[in-house]
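Can you give me the bound-state structure? Components:
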Amino acid sequence: MSMRLPRSTGEWINRDKVIKFSFEGKDYTAFEGDTVSSALWAAGERALGRSFKYHRPRGVLSFANHDVNVMLTDGLDTNIRGDVVTIRDGQKFVAVNTDGGVRNDKNKYIDSISPLLPVGFYYKAFHTPRRMFPFWENIIRKAAGLGIVNFNFPRVTKRKLNRHCDLLVIGAGPAGLSAALVAAEAGLDVVVVDENQYAGGSLSYDRAGSGELATKLADLLSMVNRTPNIKLYTGAYAAGYYTDHLVPIVRADGITKVRAKSVIVASGAFEQPPVFRNNDLPGVMLGSAAQRMIHRYSTKPFDKGLVVTANDHGYRVALDLIEAGVKVLAVVDLRASGQNADLMSNVVRKGIAVHTGQCVYEAVPTEGKFGVKEAVVCPFDEATATVDTSKAVTIPCDGIAMSAGWAPAAALLYQAGTAMRYDYTVQQFVPAKLPAGVFAAGKVNGVFDLAQRVHDGARAANDVLRYLGKPAADVVVSEHAGAAPSHPYPVVPHPKAKNFVDFDEDLQLKDFINGAKEGFDNIELMKRFTTVGMGPSQGKHSNMNAIRILARIRGLPVEKIGTTTARPFFHPTPIGHLAGRGLHPHRLTPMHAWHEEAGAEFVEVGPWMRAAYYKKPGLSKAEIVQEEALAVRHAAGIIDGGSLGKFELQGPDASEFLNRFYTGIFSSQKIGETRYALMLDEAGVVVDDGVVSRLGLESFYVTVSTSNAAAVYREMQRCLQTWKLNVGLTNVTGAVGLINVAGPKARQIVAKTTSLDISDKAFPFGEIRETEVAGVPARIIRVGFVSDLAFEIHMAAGYARHVWDALLAAGKDEGLRPFGTDAQRLLRLEMGNHLVGHDTDGLTNPFEIGAEWAIKMAKGFFVGQRSLKIIAKRPLKKRLVPFVLDESYKGQMPQECNLVIEDGQIKGRTTSVSYSKSAGRVIGFAYVDPNQASPGSRFNIRTDSGVMVKATVVKAPFVSLQQGA
Amino acid sequence: MPYRLLKFALKKEHDEPRFFRALETPKKSYDAVIIGGGGHGLAAAYYLAKDHGITNVAVLERGYIGGGNTGRNTTIVRSNYLTPEGVNFYDASVKIYEGLSEELDLNLFYSTRGHFTLAHTESAMRTMRWRAEVNKHVGVESYVVGPDEIAKACPQLDLSCSGKAPILGALFHAPGSVARHDAVAWGYARGADRLGVEIFQNTEVTGIDVQGGKVAGVQTSRGYIATNRVLSAVAGFTPRVCKMVDVKTPIVIHPLQACVTEPMKPWLDTILVSGSLHVYVSQSSRGELVMGSSLDPYEVHSTRSSLDFVEGLTSHMLDMFPFLSNIKVVRQWAGMADMTPDFAPIMGKTPVDGFYLDAGWGTWGFKATPISGKTMAETIARDKAPELIHSFRLSRFEDYELTGEKGAASVGH
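Here's the bound-state model for the whole set.
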């Protein structure tokens, strides 16, 4: 039976394009633009889903994504909102969370055993005896959740945009559009967003049976479209409000992050269901849902039914229903008095009975609860919310439209920090104090009359102009006249319950009463105990009634109950949208392409990609690493160190700064000299180390470790600001390339590329020279991290590849071989050099790693000094020592971070462990008891499998040195 | 069907008693006053009454019960810490948790699902081994596992993390659990209330009266209360309360954010943590994915949410689970974490006589709820902290005897 109405102007469907889809295995047709719900409803279907807990059949409630009665999957996607998602040709839908489909859901029995499952039942059962809980939990877990996740769903990468504007208007209803037009006329750059497919808000559905408003909307929209400085986005919702007017706008294709100078929230109000028995049956829907169905999708909500109301809006709904050909049997008005005389006489004139002071006591279901058979209407006492069932009458019908009140769509206002107050003239929360730059207009501001909403938009726009320091007019908005748009307590008790407040969570009136009885009688505790508002629609249709009910239970005015905190997101927002493209940038050194060609295996170090080792056919990684290291020991190796942190410090206070920042003395450092630099935090913990070279009286060049470079730079900046020293700090990490040539033949190789005298006498260890290498300006530092003979060459990054190639050519006949970070780590271990972060942890002090020599306590202040003074007086708890395993040891190889155990106690751990071909045995670093730290001491390492291995403390280095070669 | 459910159906009226009394007017004095009606404060009250017979106790809560970090955390309970002191302490907590539903006769949905801390780098693997070795030493079931075992427990996980951070292994911690966090607070509140403890919600402490270096009472929005013993268990508000008694702590407040998806049929049975990707995730018994990430990098005393948090977290979630692209995040929120320099709590006595601290709970407070309550109750009752929390004493900062747990924080903070 088709419920589709004749074509009407302004409908959101394209009758020229018919598409096919299926629902629960049955084929249907729809028009392009139809949502799943509108197409199914037009086809005469009523039961479009099953409820979360009791598995009751559900149909359309809000038709606006304010509930999740119609939650679907198409086999690909999970939790599709049938009310608002338009159909693509060929889609095959089924409802989520059924066992056997909507018609024959095997779980429907749960509805009849609901007395076993009162509010919070799961807190009170299943836990005794303890061993049985996993059994029950398994059953509960199976019942939980909505849609089934498709593990093959592709990763979606949505674009992100940033947008700035003078004014962001949220909601393209009459208030929002009016505000936009006024602001745009004053020259502001205005962005308007609306979550619906088309703009217009209530103008697109709330017509009271007249075509006049359609014309008004068309006029308004054509004005907006003619205004170049208004950009209107539909199908776009404001997902949240974040600090400083940051509002992410979500559309199908991605998120636009709008930073607005000002924001007008004109997001309207959510219609709220009156609470009565079986108010959730398919066919019982909100008045605004019925109107949306009629005017947007030209679909008849039902054939004959009634309107239950408590405000003017219900009468407007009745007029729309009549116009759509619905036989309206009666308007049932909870209010004994206060009706709008014009609207009422309009309705009465059409021959409709109006029953004032009456309520729908219950909707009586058809077989299987798939629809409404009749409505039971009886007198209702507003003051006490009690009914007189002795005077009940039964009206056969197939639908009920409900209009009893509204809740402001104020989530963004709350997130912005708006203080709300309860306004008794409209029986609604309205903004009391808005944060700077945030404004509200229309229904969300408690303004309901259409003309006044237009005024209120203009008023808000002028408030924006004033806020932005522009000339502004005073617009007067009339106080609300007539009856309140919301009923203070549209709640009808019923001994058999099933009078629903929260449709997502299947919460009935008694659940709130019982929750309060158990002590959960403030709104936050009530939310958490009953779970009201915690479903996917986040309380849009339920929180206001929950507040009213709790106020009634407590005997307090509504404003004393307050509201729960509204958090992002306004609508649940897809992870793919939020994640965006998931960029994962890497920094590459100038030699990266060379490394790739040479077969490098890369490793991430901080943000950098570094060559770990260079693959060789037929050799394992371990073998290659030993080979690369041996080349350095016996001939020479070359490594790309471009990722090292590099900073230039200039200025009269540069040496003073370094004196304070590091533990050593730099004021006495000679020009051309380099010094080890140890960085501590205020607690005296070792944070980083590096090398400071003095280039001039007021000029220093500092290198720090790759992975800490960003943090050290940040800390240097912070200290500079705190200490107010006259130093220019420049991070040249990416601008400068770095190549290290190490090994006994390093000197003769480097000598071929520079005119500088690099003999040990002319250029001893620990010095820096500014010179040329391969014809380009470069600095060379004599370092000794991986070998006691090594030249670290620093040059502009653009020249680095050229120098690299020149050095390789120079070393071709000398056995020069590139090595990666793995060999570097082994080489430095062989040299007895610890690695900060590898051989230290978040609590290591310099005494524990034997770095006393690097600390100049006698100088003035430095970071960590005060702590070191205290620590120095305390007994050392552990000490990092170089160790070897016996040459003969053949057992399980100890791993880094195995424990050092003495007498069953943890005394320390290994931090570096490696086999060294040069040393001919396993070598490493370990923390041991200070009593066992002297060379020759033996200690136990416990391997992963629990085997104790004897290790011997030795003196570093583990390899013999060349001594200047 | 359990008998207890039948009982509901057999009764005409819902005659379940209140969890806790609705009290408005405090007495003039109490033997002890607990500031903060979160899990910790309520647990301390419960154990004061139960273990030590001290029932003349008031719990003062500025908002509502469990409304602070008890209701904001991601409900993970574990004991796979790095220091033996930490492991022993949290292990004691796990053991109480395991029997707590029965003890409080409230189903806390304490669900032992196993906990994987994924390692994507060699250095993370080293830390995992360190933790595993310390855990084993203390008798806690943690060990390093390879990618195969992870895949077995969570076949949906992309072990390459979209090629961005391949998983090398993990620290598996068998006792890792999740629980219904609100219920923990309610259960302790009910237990304490039944033993005579008085709980006052909407009651703000505005000052602490110290005379001659000793606590004499507290000023509250409901008037002055005389007492010689005050426990501060206020998570992100610790600096404000400590200021009232002029006790200095090294605590700084950073926001910690979290978010939750809409419900879906359960598929994720374990608890997964990735340090490198800054993600921890589990699926609740409602079917929601509960997700958290690292601390916000700045000090802020507020619970506002930020967009970049959820952008970063979801991006990393997709690296692990690419198929979640169209799953929707319903809600995000934030808590205030009081961070200590060594990532261990501050518990015990303070320089002010009768002022006890249960603080510095950073991002690890929920899992310690039972044991912190138990040990703080003992501290208050005996005016002496038990050995179990000796390494968490406030004076350790002056003594440079920190309890380094940074390496065991769930994600890099």
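A couple of observations. Residues 122-138 of chain B form the longest helix (17 residues). The first strand of chain B starts at residue 32 and ends at 35.
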